[in-house]
Amino acid sequence: MHVAHLSLADFRNYERAELPLEPGVTALVGPNGQGKTNLVEALGYVASLSSHRVSHDAPLVRAGAERAVVRASVVRDGRSLLAEVEINPGRANRARLGRAALPRARELVGTLRTVLFAPEDLALVKGDPEGRRRFADDLLVLLAPRLAGVRAEYERALKQRNALLRSAGSTSAARRGAGPLPGIEVWDAQVATLGADLLSARRYLLARLAPYVARAYDAVAETAPGGTGAGAAAAGAPADVVRLAYRSSLAEHRGEGEEDLSAEAAREGGAPPRDVLAAQLVEAMEQLRRREVERGLTLVGPHRDDVLLSLRGLPARGYASHGESWSYALALRLGAYELLRSEGPGTPSEREPVLVLDDVFAELDARRRARLAELVADAEQVLLTAAVPEDVPPQLTGRRVAVRAGSLGLPVADAEREAAGAGTDGPDGPDGSDGPDGSDSPTADEGAGADGADRADEETGRG
Ligand SMILES: Nc1ncnc2c1ncn2[C@@H]1O[C@H](COP(=O)(O)OP(=O)(O)OP(=O)(O)O)[C@@H](O)[C@H]1O
Ligand SMILES: [Mg+2]
Q1: Which residue's CA is the nearest one to ligand 1's atom 12?
Q2: What is the pTM of this model?
Q3: Contact (Cβ atoms closer than 8 angstroms) between residue 222 and residue 237
């Protein structure tokens, strides 16, 4: 799939922006702090209803405005579909697909699929388990949309169960583990059933993802001695460098080790079936009850798990160098991209996500830039950002758009390359009303422009 047009209203530092896009590579180029990342963040938001930078929506709305609207015209199998989200911090977002308002904004997820890599992703390798769980679950939802519901219900059940544990903790009998805990069985069962569902889905996902990540790491970091030592560079070699393992709080409680997902053993059927996992979770909760009441927390389940990333036999977190961690994070995203592309649901066109690379090339030397450029060259659509045009590898020919303080210059194509940064501001079109590109806007016939903006205003009126 690809995006033919992106429109923003009151998003971050954009009052209005209209960005016509094409398949192939588009580089957003401009000095620091101008709004390049904001554009790709907006695209990611229509795709996933979340930002890769902030967990609350307030910063996404332009200072002084009340709500933001992001709209993307998505082309899948030659048909274009308008996906729109209105961001209302503190209140429910509203989403539209085509002309229809969706009952729940969440239903928009999956219409546009993007895989976004940004410098923040370094935290996938260096940071807390939460980021790795989110990475896995976000990918899971794209592969099996049914799991969006499971994930949300699990979180809800967990909250209820924790609330009950906390309230029990305030009565002294229960604190001593003496008293019964009326009603807890219901929540045990719910948390266990949903948790087992999530647990087995995650294991299966990570087993499928692992080989893609290993290959991506190899491609980005050039781990295999290309050409030399024929045996070492054979197909199986990258997997020994990069390994993913699942650390399950349930397995840990049961005294079992972590599960190596790169191994052939991790095939489907290698792990216990869901009903067994659910029964094991219930059992673990019963055994942990006293401590859970003391702490007011559910101590076992997928919310306590982690994805362990290792590099040449050592945990990446705490051991890997900065450059290695960075390559690993990039490999996780590129691996996810390849997995979605080759095994995702839908037609080949629906499967292929839009690849977004924020600030990726500045970190790489010339050789790695060239390898990454090669790797993404056959993607249907790639959006990338760079502060200076020289950071964009010459192999990646395509459109370049100048981004200056919340407005979009003309697609600068060759002019900018020739001028190499010397006063190359394109004519700005801050309100987007007179068509920022003035040429062959691919979306002129589908209402992604001014017409769409009116609809947003109507909605505002209904408050
Ligand atoms: N809610 C908001 N309202 C107004 N301006 C905002 C808002 N949020 C962020 N900004 C502004 O947007 C700008 C940052 O934009 P962005 O992160 O897209 O920059 P960038 O072009 O990617 O820069 P870099 O090259 O440094 O990554 C900052 O100047 C910031 O103050
Ligand atoms: Mg940026």
Answers
A1: 13
A2: 0.84
A3: no
